Amino acid sequence: MGNDGASKIVGMCDIHLETNTGCKLVLKDVRHVPNMRLNLISTGKLDDDGYTNYFGEGKWKLSRGSLVVAKGKKESTHYMTNAKHSKGGINVAEKDYSIELWHKRLGHLSKKGLQILSKKQLFPGAKGTLLKTCVHCLARKTHRVAFHRFPPSRRSKVLDLIHTDVCFMRDKTLGCASYYVTFIDDHSRKVWTYALKTKDQVLDVFKQFHAEVERETGLKLKCVRVDNGGEYRGPFESYCRLHGIKLQKSVPKAPQKNGVAERMNRTICERIKCMLSHAKLPKSFWGEAMRTTVDLINISPLVPLEGDVPQRVWTGKEVSYEHLRVFGCKAYVHVPKDERAKLDDKAKPCIFMGYGREEFGYRL
């Protein structure tokens, strides 16, 4: 104790609390010490259990992901909060998320990819490892069994080689795009995509991509592998020569020679179809689904990386999955006080479309 005294622990159990935010908080291995006048909660134990503590301006907030579990105020040298013992079925902060939910949050990731991440215990609150048959995947990912080919070796550094390809989509996006172009780093297998209205926009987005990745890594792009499409001729060739980028072209009518980009485009299209089907959204939303699909591919394990994920290989930093939500699910956005009347709702319903890149938050 603080006064160098000792008190006897007479019991230990898990306690279920209903917090002042209406959530259920489970405190594990709580010690019962009759001589103590206050109930103390260890912030270190909460941190170990996956919660996040925020302290500042005399206030305390406990969160798990985007859910605010409890709040409190500073009194003297302690932070105080109110809670009551509960076993009811209220909003639960400690959730058991099924593997099916994580399958949907990760944009219908393959069974093998889910097993890899589950074994690494990267899914907060994940329950079970056996994925049931997904009707959306069954209907939209079925294809002929391919002949096995010896996998090519990966380049040793990022930006040593970039694979690129253009994919045509019959349906236009909300912004009237009919194509998208992919850029894939050979070493990390990280992928970037850009929606295009016409093929002649490829050079413009490549210039943008080129500047961004070199600025981010401090490295120079050395080589780009393309097919024989007209969008990669003329001005594109001139730009590569000007910047010392080697241009590798595949043999005419042999798209398998640009196999990394071709296979990635197929993966992206399959997962776009699965996500739109599950969300019951029209095909014109494929641009939003594509953006989210790529974000999820970059944090999903890949066979060429022996189970590692592109974003970690690209940055050297671990990735988190706590912020993931199911594409197309219902969401609510807060309406600022200066944008509503007194009797107006404080939040309005939206559809979850993905994750912010330049800004922190969700796209709704």
TrEMBL record:
Cross-referenced Gene3D superfamilies: Ribonuclease H-like superfamily/Ribonuclease H
Gene Ontology biological process terms in this record: DNA integration; proteolysis
SUPFAM superfamilies documented for this protein: Ribonuclease H-like (SSF53098)
Keyword annotations: Hydrolase, Protease
InterPro entries to which the protein is assigned, alphabetical: GAG-pre-integrase_dom, Integrase_cat-core, PolX-like_BBD, Retrotran_Ty1/copia-like, RNaseH-like_sf, RNaseH_sf, SH3_retrovirus
Pfam families on file: gag_pre-integrs, Pol_BBD, rve, SH3_retrovirus
Organism superkingdom: Eukaryota
Stretches of the chain forming a coiled coil according to its record: none
Signal peptide limits: none
Domain Integrase catalytic: 148-318
Molecular function terms from GO: nucleic acid binding; peptidase activity
Name under which the protein is recorded: Integrase catalytic domain-containing protein
Native source species: Linum trigynum
Lineage: Eukaryota, Viridiplantae, Streptophyta, Embryophyta, Tracheophyta
